[in-house]
TrEMBL record:
Residue intervals of the Methyltransferase type domain: 41-137
Keyword DNA-binding appears in the UniProt entry: no
Gene3D superfamilies referenced in this protein's UniProt entry, alphabetically: Vaccinia Virus protein VP39 (3.40.50.150)
One Pfam family cited in the UniProt record for this chain: Methyltransf_12
MF terms in GO: methyltransferase activity
Species name: Kitasatospora herbaricolor
Keywords (A to Z) from UniProt: Methyltransferase, Transferase
Official protein name in the record: Class I SAM-dependent methyltransferase
Lineage: Bacteria, Bacillati, Actinomycetota, Actinomycetes, Kitasatosporales
Record-level GO BP terms: methylation
InterPro entries assigned to the protein according to its UniProt record, in alphabetical order: Methyltransf_12, SAM-dependent_MTases_sf
Length: 250
């Protein structure tokens, strides 16, 4: 199975592809999309869970999502239609780093998609190019909760320098010209719920489709991921979602 298919199945029961509860997502959106009307852009939107929640909460907002997974985008379109939001959202099958727009956005999001830009700093720079003066950026990225052991690095396929700690993450944000005005640090409970949902949904799909040619591969992928989490990076990898504004006028 390709990684996109595995991820899509694994997120069946946790459509926000990050270790964040629905309540925390609602709070972040409430702070990020304060004006009654506005335009939001999600760079690496997946199935557009953040955007659709924003549009549902803000009837006068419009949204644009960009992602490389065509199946995820099709599911986003289906969900938008079911919610009656299809006329307020545009979805583009495109590399997030290559997206351009004629008009800026009041809110730009990039949650768990900094790999598309090569890290947090280039993500901030790219997202900032799409932001209207006075607009807000909602970005989510991993950080080291503690010094990573080799087992954690091996499980994640990561290098020590791929992330810093929480203090270093906030220092980087400030150094790049942004001021955090709100945020959410995912708890151990949120991480555990997310990982159990991820591996559980994938395992259940495999057990429900024993005759499918990918059934064994899906079950193996779930088992491997569970082992990497429990014996590798659990308690080591953190996740923070930050609401940012430019420190100075742009």
């Amino acid at each position: 199975m390709d990684r996109q298919t595995i991820s899509r199945i694994a997120h069946t029961d946790h459509p926000i592809a990050a270790p964040i509860t629905d309540e925390a997502v609602a709070r972040l959106i409430g702070r990020a999309a304060r004006p009654e009307a506005g335009r939001a852009l999600d760079l690496g939107c997946g199935e557009a869970g953040w955007l659709l929640r924003t549009l549902a909460a803000k009837p006068r907002w419009q949204a644009v999502g960009v992602d490389l997974d065509p199946t995820a985008l099709n599911r986003a379109r289906q969900t938008a239609q079911a919610m009656g939001l299809e006329r307020r959202i545009g979805l583009h099958h495109l590399d997030a780093a290559a997206f351009t727009a004629k008009e800026p956005f009041d809110l730009v999001l990039s949650i768990g998609a900094t790999h598309a830009f090569g890290g947090l700093a280039p993500t901030l720079a790219a997202a900032g190019e799409h932001l209207a003066p006075g607009g807000r950026l909602l970005v989510g990225d991993a950080f080291w909760e503690r010094e990573p052991a080799q087992e954690a690095l091996d499980a994640l396929g990561a290098a020590r320098e791929d992330f810093t700690d929480l203090a270093g993450t906030l220092d980087l944000v400030r150094a790049e010209g942004w001021t955090p005005v709100h945020g959410h640090v995912s708890s151990r409970q949120e991480w555990d719920d997310y990982e159990l949902s991820w591996t559980g949904s994938l395992s259940e799909w495999a057990l429900d489709h024993p005759e499918h040619p990918d059934s064994a591969a899906a079950l193996a992928a779930a088992d491997a991921h569970r082992a990497e989490w429990l014996h590798g990076y659990r308690g080591t990898l953190g996740f923070v979602t930050l609401l940012l504004r430019r420190t100075s006028a742009h």
